[in-house]
Amino acid sequence: MRRDGKPALHIPADFCSRFRANAYARAKLISMETPIHRPQPASPVYEVLSQSRADLEREALLGDGLRAALWRREQLEDTIYDRPTHHTLSLYLEDGYDVYLNGQPSRRGGPGKLCLLPAEHESYWRINGRIRFVHFYFTQEQFGELAVRMLDREPRLLALRQNIYWEDDRLAGLGRQLAAQHWQDSESRLNANAIGHEMLAYLLLNHSDRQRGLPVRGGLAPTLRRRALELIDHRLDGELTVGELAQALSLSEYHFARMFRESVGEAPHRWIMRRRLARARDLLSRGDLPLTVVAHRSGFSHASHLTRHFREALGVTPGIYRLWTQNRG
Questions:
Q1: % the chain with pLDDT above 70
Q2: DSSP-assigned letter for residue 71
Q3: What is the rounded CA–CA span in Å between residue 144 and residue 320?
Q4: What is the model's pLDDT at position 32?
Q5: Where exactly are the structural domains of the chain?
Q6: Predicted TM-score of the model (pTM)
Q7: How far apart are CA 69 and CA 49, in angstroms?
Q8: For residue 321, which of 287, 288, 285 has the smallest C-alpha distance?
Q9: For 84-136, how does the pLDDT look when each residue is reduced to its tens digit (9 = 90+)?
Q10: Which homologous superfamily does the CATH classification assign to the domain defined by 222-328?
Q11: What sign for the dihedral angle of Cα 107, 166, 111, 32?
């Protein structure tokens, strides 16, 4: 009986011990929650996974700003991608049924499922089971160059659509072909490079949207942009400077360079080099032209100059590339 005359509250003898046991169990459960790997902002997806519990089976730089990696995850660990500066296409090869975006547990992965993660996106992945997948990474510059050439569109006016867990037989087939290449020799990497370019073109035509309602400032007028690109392609076999291009468009060199970059997504000299290398690849694939002739017609001062830039861009020499094109038939 309490002092105020009310009956005392009866507490079972084992209540305290059960309370302590339950509290301990809850604390243990919290400590066993799936760990989270939090990267630095703008970290490439490849680096995020390399620093996580994911296992890398193999990876390779494929040339032209393309990269592929084959991953396997056996351990539970949530993963966050925080505004990477490149695009990522993911194809699940095995399992993945217990992987989903945070807050969307009803949408699950599985073999054949695709994920398109554009540059600057943010996503939080719950990894609650085994998964094996291939990643295809490509730069904004490479995608932008394709948009200009194929669609005559400025890259800043196009956006890749983020898409999670959709199925596309054509794209998944290309992804499996990419994963089937072992990427460890020149022929395999060149095969993977060709597959990668086919995937890029497919994504551009089927999974990009025109940016609407965005204020567009600066850049070259469409007619001037086309004129500049035509001049570059027409004069690839000779000396070509930014000053000459600017003069042809009646612009100062400074304003032309700035406006060109805004319209095309990269500086004029980088675009010119990309086009020179494309010309060289085309000439190498046509027959047995001497390398000095290929170099001259592509705007390189000598064969060694072409070879150095060719190897930097594609990872192989012009001779190996020519042999590869001949073997492909």
A1: 86
A2: E
A3: 28
A4: 46
A5: 45-210, 222-328
A6: 0.85
A7: 10
A8: 285
A9: 999 999 999 999 999 999 999 999 999 999 999 999 999 999 999 999 999 99
A10: Homeodomain-like (1.10.10.60)
A11: negative
Closest CA to 172 of 142, 143, 133: 133
Place of tokens 């406006």: 259
Question: Which CATH class name applies to 45-210?
Answer: mainly beta
Pairing of strands 122-127, 78-82: antiparallel
| Beta carbons of 310 and 290 less than 8 angstroms apart | no
Is it the case that residue 30 has pLDDT exceeding 70?
A: no
pLDDT in tens, 269-303: 999 999 999 999 999 999 889 999 999 999 999 99
Cβ–Cβ under 8 Å, residues 280 and 290: no
> What's the mean per-residue pLDDT of the chain?
89
Residues 269 and 241: their CA atoms lie apart, in Å, by 8
Distances (CA, A) of 177 to 95, 96, 132: 18, 20, 15
- 32 vs 272: CA distance, rounded Å: 55
186 with 320: CB under 8 angstroms?
A: yes
Residue pointed to by tokens 């087939």: 173
Q: Which residues contact 155 (CB under 8 A, 6 or more apart)?
A: 140, 143, 144, 145, 147, 148, 264, 265
pLDDT in tens, 218-257: 899 999 999 999 999 999 998 889 999 999 999 999 999 9
User: Which residue type sits at 271?
Assistant: W
Strand 99-101, strand 122-127: pairing: antiparallel
